[in-house]
Amino acid sequence: MRVLMGDDSPKVFKAPFKTYGWVEEVKLAIEHKFSLTVYTWGLITGIISGVLAARFSWGWVVGLLMYLIMDKFVMWVVKELPPDVPDERAILKKGFWGWAMFWLYFTMLAYSVMIHFQPVCYSNQSLLYQMMHTGNTSVQCVVNFTG
After folding, report:
1. Lower Cβ count inside 10 Å, N or C end of the chain?
2. pTM (global) more than 0.85
3. What does the alpha-carbon distance between residue 45 and residue 39 come to, in Å, rounded to a whole number?
């Protein structure tokens, strides 16, 4: 299967593993490869931040510091820059929001999984409480009525 994205002369990405005939090569435009690399770095730093934040109070700072080496990771994977990124110094500015959204999402996801998050129902009129008692969800809710 050949996938063509972007302009007529994209770079070829070959799978580093045996494909068993169903994937020959994937052609990605440099802009798409740049974006996917930024998102991947956000995923990696988010998981690391979430796991460390569950263990240490300063764990989320590690992910923020890892943002500063995103340009090295992008250049290691992409090898060349898209036309709208003039030089390596602009990588951090261009990829900030894409990285930040993935970092934040995966930090919170990994943190929630690591601390075994359990929701608390503060009222028998809450939607979660109603869903829990009607059998529509498998989430166990700690009931803590106040007032």
Report:
1. C
2. no
3. 10
The continuous run of DSSP H or E covering 109 comes out as: helix 96-114
In angstroms, the CA 39 to CA 102 distance is 6
Q: Determine the number of helices (DSSP H) and then strands (DSSP E) in the chain.
A: 6, 5
The 10s digit of each residue's pLDDT in 21-68 is 555 566 788 899 999 999 999 999 999 999 999 999 898 899 899 999
Which residues are CB-contacts of 23 (< 8 A; sequence separation ≥ 6)?
Answer: 1, 15
What is d(CA 35, CA 78) in angstroms, rounded to the nearest whole number? 10
Distances (CA, A) of 120 to 30, 113, 130, 146: 46, 16, 13, 11
Strand partners, 77: none
Where do we find the tokens 């764990």?
59
Q: Where are the beta strands (DSSP E) in 9-132?
A: 11-13, 25-28, 120-121
In the block, residue with structure tokens 């290691």 = 76
Assigned token pair, 122: 């503060």
